[in-house]
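Is calcium ion placement plausible here? Inputs below.
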Amino acid sequence: MREKQILPVVIVALTGALVAVIALWTLDRVDSSQLDRPQNDVSEMSSPTDVIEWKLVTTWPKGLPGLGAAPENFARRVNEASGGRLRIKVFGAGEIVPAFEVFDAVSRGVAEAGHGAAYYWKGKIPAAVFYTAVPFGMTAQEANGWLHYGGGLPLWRELYAPFGVIPYAGGSTGVQMAGWFNKRLNNRADLAGLKMRIPGLAGEVFDAAGGSAVRIAGGEVYTSMQTGVIDAVEWVGPYNDRTLGLMEVGEYYYYPGWHEPGAMLETIINAEALAALPEDLQAIVRIAARATNTDMLDDFTANNSESLQILLRDFDTQVLPLPDDVMDALYEQSQVAIQALVDADPMAKKIAASYFTFAEKVRAYHEISERAYLNGRDRLLPPVEVTAE
Ligand code: CA
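Reply from A.M.:
I modeled the complex. Tokens:
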């Protein structure tokens, strides 16, 4: 009796399964045959003539890891995301224009894009220093908050608008090192007469503190140290300083980077070239720039840590903290330099108001978040050995 009741149910189920299998197979056939057919009329398809080619000039030596990798990654991301419709070719410093002419080249349309550091343009645009580094200013995390959610980026756009250039955050190195010195620093008097490669507002601070700031592009710093043209150099940190070989020409490696606590780089685009792109390609440029910005800090965080270990282990690098008296002198002169900049330039005043208002708020929050956490962690974990005696 029970078998008679079950059999029809099994037959119905098997029949159903067979119908389903045939239906799926048929659907699959239909899909395949549709894929074989052109999706659009041939006249609507992309042709090689639709490919847009851009030149991107940088302030970095070609092939430099870290700083130089950022524009290469930006170009690769745009090329990939656009399916090759927008192809960006990257040129190192000196290949089309010298390092310090990158901004002008993008402004004039000699190149559609550029990558560098805003403080290199301070002779032309004094307020640009806020978009690389402010001595004793914000860290990378803080500055990115200001740029993207605290009003910093719209002011940057306003600053560059007269030049037909659109800026994007182009990466950050995190806190840099104070630099390589061929003289031991005991107090502020030791800064007197010291010739140092140190750009931006910090260069003015270094001059005022008794030193002599020299403006030299990355490609020349090694030779300048080696030949004694300069006594000290700040470049970036363990990762990029190691790639330039600075541990071979500098004796003492001082920290922290008071002058570049979260040095930001920039990706700059010629405004007309950007406006001429279809909207989807404009979006790809924006998104690739943002991705490059984030990615660079990750690169530096990982590779600075790795390179510091290599410097300590393989090169016996003497890592030293700047004495408090030197830090005090640099801080005092930083305040003077920032005030002079703000007094002399209306845009600097406007940007400084936004920057320092944000900086004070984030400092209060980081007192109970980042700093409290790092202090709490350090109290519990074994001490780390870095500083030389
Ligand atoms: Ca630097």
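Short version: The longest strand covers residues 165-172.
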